[in-house]
Amino acid sequence: MNALHTQRGSTLVVTLIFLVLMSLFAISAFNSTGSNLRVVGNTQARQEAMSAADSALEAVITSVSQAMENKRVLGLPPDFDPVAVSASPIAVDINGDGTSDYTVNLSTPQCFRISDHTPTVEITKEGLNPDHPEAFCLGGGVCRDTDWNFAATVTDARTNTTVTAHQGMTITLQLAEAANHCTPPTP
Questions:
Q1: Phi, psi torsion values for 106, nearest 5 degrees
Q2: How confident is the chain (187 residues) per 10-residue block, as mean pLDDT?
Q3: Which of 49, 123, 127, 147 is most buried by its number of CB atoms within 10 A?
Q4: What's the confidence (pLDDT) of residue 34?
């Protein structure tokens, strides 16, 4: 009976130790879940901001392309005002609820290259094909392809996430205007 009397408290001690260990595991799992939720939330905010920047860049590049095409159709010489592109921020609604979720700021596009060749123009017996993209170049001078870098920056006020997206675009300009915006090619 003496051995049974000494073991009475050991079950309580072992049970308390297991209870403390299980509590520590539960607290650790809770903290880990909270950290994972923050990581997922930050990743989602970054992806949404990147999507907003891409959406704004696509809208601007489409607008510039359409403006250049309209000038070509009207027979006007091509011109491009990079400062006008970045004049005002663009509001983007990511979730489609009708309210702006992000504001995208565009940097002034930078021309980083003028091609060293004249675009090929097809001339038939009847003359220049008016549907050719470079048809407007012959009337006012030689044209060159210019390569531009468009950059859009988004800062999310809720998470302080800042994302910058870049997109390139080739714009055909008359040589004189291309020289005003870009560095001429080096031989």
A1: -100, 135
A2: 63 86 86 80 88 92 85 72 84 87 91 73 51 54 82 87 92 81 65
A3: 49
A4: 76
Please compute, for residue 129, the number of CA atoms within 13 A of its CA located in the half-sphere on the CB side. Answer: 9
The residue behind tokens 């800062």 is 155
